[in-house]
């Protein structure tokens, strides 16, 4: 079937006027099972077309000591700065409208459906989620769940499937204490706990020996972080952790969720371009683009992987 130039122009005008409406609909939708949004601070402040995002980390050195009143060797303090750089890459996902649905919507005075645009937006969120949580080997990114700079330690009691509630609670609190005491010398406390779904389900149903309360409900009130700060510990079940340990065993992640500890760079969040890509057979394409950097774990000692739970 040959589409006339008039029909193509009419379709173009109609689709262009609809793009803003569809875009508004799509960006009002949130996807509850996308993980990164609530687990990782996101930074969108870099220029949308920046090639890299650069930052500096610093460490202090020096300590006071006793000196003679006439000393000429007074101890000195200072700072050491290290430059870090994260590459930013372009990616895209768009959608299209067929000529028939455009003509029918125009005839009936209806808005074009946003289903395909929603699918494109969903694909964007899934891509970012994958990069943030698991990294991307093609671009050399590492994720929150498998970052090489993060310390890895074995759980105190081993696999939870045959352990008592007290042993499970000990493993969790030992993991939180590792960040606080061992890794940072009581400087930082982990406020977020990520568990494999199998272990999250286990503690949500396993009861304490002397009560009807579950390990999970007890843990929410009784953990090292809450006992010290009075604030609730974030506890989440996460897909992908059940076999991430060094020998394929379940892994637990403890960390302080703060921008100075970790940050995901999205200089250009997903956007649909108002300039249509053009007529292609019997459809109009609506491109969607975004620019994404990797996850920076800036203070890796404030993150810990506990293996073999």
Notes on the protein architecture:
There is one protein chain. By secondary structure, the chain is α+β, with helices and mostly antiparallel strands. Helix content is 32%, strand content 26%. It contains eight helices and 15 strands. The chain has helices at 5-27, 36-39, 99-108, 115-134, 165-183, 197-205, 215-221, 224-229, and strands spanning 42-43, 52-61, 78-92, 95-98, 152-154, 192-196, 234-238, 251-255, 262-265, 268-272, 278-280, 283-286, 288-293, 295-297, 303-307. Strands 5-15-8-6-7 form a five-stranded mixed beta sheet. The chain has a four-stranded antiparallel beta sheet with strand order 2-3-13-10, with helices on one face. β11 and β12 (283-286) form a beta hairpin. It is flat.
Brief rundown of the structure:
The chain has 309 residues and is α+β, with helices and mostly antiparallel strands.
């Amino acid at each position: 079937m040959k589409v006339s130039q008039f029909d193509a122009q009419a379709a173009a005008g109609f689709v262009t006027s609809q793009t803003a409406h569809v875009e508004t609909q799509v960006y009002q939708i949130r996807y509850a099972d996308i993980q990164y949004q609530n687990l990782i601070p996101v930074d969108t402040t870099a220029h949308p077309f920046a090639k890299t995002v650069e930052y500096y980390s610093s460490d202090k050195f020096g300590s006071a000591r006793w000196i003679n009143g006439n000393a000429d060797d007074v101890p000195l303090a200072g700072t050491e700065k290290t430059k870090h750089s994260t590459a930013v890459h372009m990616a895209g996902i768009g959608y299209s409208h067929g000529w028939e649905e455009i003509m029918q919507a125009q005839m009936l005075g209806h808005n074009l459906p946003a289903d395909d645009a929603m699918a494109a937006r969903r694909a964007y969120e899934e891509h970012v989620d994958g990069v943030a949580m698991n990294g991307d080997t093609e671009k050399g990114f590492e994720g929150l769940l498998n970052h090489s700079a993060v310390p890895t330690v074995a759980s105190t009691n081993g696999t939870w499937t045959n352990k008592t509630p007290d042993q499970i609670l000990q493993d969790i609190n030992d993991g939180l204490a590792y960040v606080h005491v061992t890794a940072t010398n009581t400087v930082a406390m982990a406020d977020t706990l990520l568990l494999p779904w199998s272990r999250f389900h286990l503690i949500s149903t396993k009861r304490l020996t002397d009560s009807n309360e579950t390990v999970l409900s007890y843990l929410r009130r009784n953990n090292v972080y809450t006992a010290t700060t009075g604030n609730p510990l974030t506890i989440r079940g996460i897909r992908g952790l059940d076999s991430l340990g060094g020998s394929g065993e379940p892994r637990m992640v403890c960390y302080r969720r703060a921008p100075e500890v970790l940050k995901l760079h999205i200089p250009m969040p997903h956007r649909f371009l108002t300039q249509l890509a053009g007529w292609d057979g019997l459809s109009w394409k609506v491109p969607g683009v975004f620019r994404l950097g990797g996850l920076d774990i800036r203070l890796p000692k404030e993150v810990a992987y506990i293996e073999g739970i």
